[in-house]
Amino acid sequence: MQFFLDTGDIDEITKASQWGLIDGVTTNPSLIAKTGRSQKDVITDICKIIDGPISAEVISTDKEGMIKEGAVLAEMHPNVVIKLPLTEAGISACKWFSTNDIKTNVTLCFSANQALLAAKNGATYISPFIGRLDDIGQDGMQLIHEIRAVYDNYGYPTEILAASIRHTMHVHQSALAGADVATMPYSVIKAMFNHPLTTSGLEKFLADHQKANK
Ligand code: E4P
Questions:
Q1: Lower CB count within 10 Å: N or C terminus of the chain?
Q2: Superfamily of structural domain 2-212
Q3: Does the pTM of the predicted model rise above 0.85?
């Protein structure tokens, strides 16, 4: 499973990169806004730290605008992936980008049918939002299972990028469901290291070592 960091925070990306676990980064307009910096500056900095797919989202809502904006973003760095909303315009623009060998991440996916549209137009990644479905009382993880089954039925190469991950159970369940990628906040990946038995076990090993080497 690939791990992407879901943030525009350069400090977090720098810290997480030390683990050697981060395969890519996803951003969105809200995450960029939190940084108080321009999308261009943030994406440029991320590309210097992580050598992997970096999703940068368009804010145009029409196909031509998305293509124009995405083409400029794609010129920034070969690792930039154009993030498009799952709308009629976004799916149409996706076809243009895939035809022109530019990678895409189709975002704001909330149904298997939507995921099918993205795959048919050659999306590189589909981003089902697990947490936001859970928030409204629907089972976000069920969507990952459904998309996995649909894509496997037809052999679509579009990668399932489990998004809107809120806690470590979402990562665990996404891995079991066969998601190709999990994009997660820094706090979630950091929490994956923790287990109380690891902590207490190490304390005991170190204490025993001290006793034996007095
Ligand atoms: C992914 O690409 C999205 O940017 C992100 O996972 C959305 O997460 P949220 O629902 O916590 O805002």
A1: C
A2: Aldolase class I (3.20.20.70)
A3: yes
